[in-house]
Design a protein that fits this description.
- The chain has seven helices and ten strands.
- With 184 residues, it is of the alpha/beta class.
- The protein has a single domain, classed as Spore Coat Polysaccharide Biosynthesis Protein SpsA, Chain A, CATH 3.90.550.
- The strands form two sheets. Strands 1, 4, 5, 6, 7, 8, 9 and 10 form an eight-stranded mixed sheet that branches. Strands 2-3 form a two-stranded antiparallel ribbon.
Length: 184
């Protein structure tokens, strides 16, 4: 069994509105991320913050998705990572919600790896999602590092080269959204 964590706790300050619910290809942006993740995961945990109710309402009819509000979201993304990880019961992926075009083939490639942490790379540039073994759950939750990258760097992680340029393309601004619409 494999699970997924989608991080959606930010303010979307550069986007000037809740980017997770902005219309992208006919539906909310975060739904694209979730639907691809559900092709390879048995269950997903979405961690919200500032826009909890809006995002929670999007997933109210999904039986294989739980939405949690990270009460400490203002402390940064790693607090949301820890919140999500506290709920997992199996190996898991972590991905920010604003990576709507990562392919299911990328997730499947990461599942083929061997190490306890696996990171995709496109043209030698690391990206998202990251795979983490359940065996590291408590270590991650108790870690006093400041970011997921710092946590990853404490381990002998595996880099898996993929043919997916979208592992390096998140949406921070309206211009990013317009750019990605022309790339898919």
């Amino acid at each position: 069994m494999i699970e997924g964590i989608i991080l959606a706790g930010g303010y979307s300050s550069r986007f000037k509105q809740n980017k997770m619910v902005v219309n992208f290809k006919g539906q909310a942006l975060i739904l694209h991320t979730a639907q691809t993740l559900l092709k390879v995961c048995d269950y997903i945990y979405i961690v919200t913050g500032h826009y909890h109710e809006e995002i929670k309402n999007l997933f109210k009819d999904f039986s294989n998705v739980s939405v949690f509000n990270n009460k400490d979201y203002q402390e940064g993304m790693f607090s949301s990572v820890k919140c999500g990880v506290s709920h997992v019961k199996h190996d898991f992926f972590i991905i920010p919600g604003d990576y709507p075009l990562v392919s299911d083939a990328t997730y499947k490639s990461l599942l083929q790896g061997e190490k306890t942490i696996r990171v995709p790379s496109y043209k030698h540039k690391l990206g998202h999602p990251i795979f983490i073994s359940y065996s590291l759950k408590n270590y991650l939750i108790e870690s006093d590092v400041e970011s997921l990258k710092d946590f990853r760097n404490l381990h002998d992680y595996e880099i898996i080269e993929v043919e997916d340029k979208f592992i390096n393309f998140d949406i921070d601004t309206i211009e990013d959204l317009e750019e990605i619409k022309g790339k898919d």
